[in-house]
Amino acid sequence: MKWLFLFALEAAGQAVTCNHTTLAEAADAYIAAQTTGQLAPLLAVTAANWTYQENNQAVSIATSRSASGIIVAKALKIDHRRTNFDLTACATYTELVSATDPANPYVIGTQIHHATDLSEPQKVVLVDSIVTTTGAWLFDAKKTLQHVLQENWTVILPERARDTRVVLQAAADAYLDMWSNATASEAVPWGTPCTRLEGSAYTGHDRPDDSCKAGIPSNHKQAPNTRRRYVIDESMGSVSVFCVWEHMMNASDSHELRLERGKLRYVHTMTSCGSKACKL
Question: Rounded to the nearest 10 degrees, how much is the dihedral formed by the CA atoms of 113, 116, 119, 121?
Answer without folding.
Answer: 80
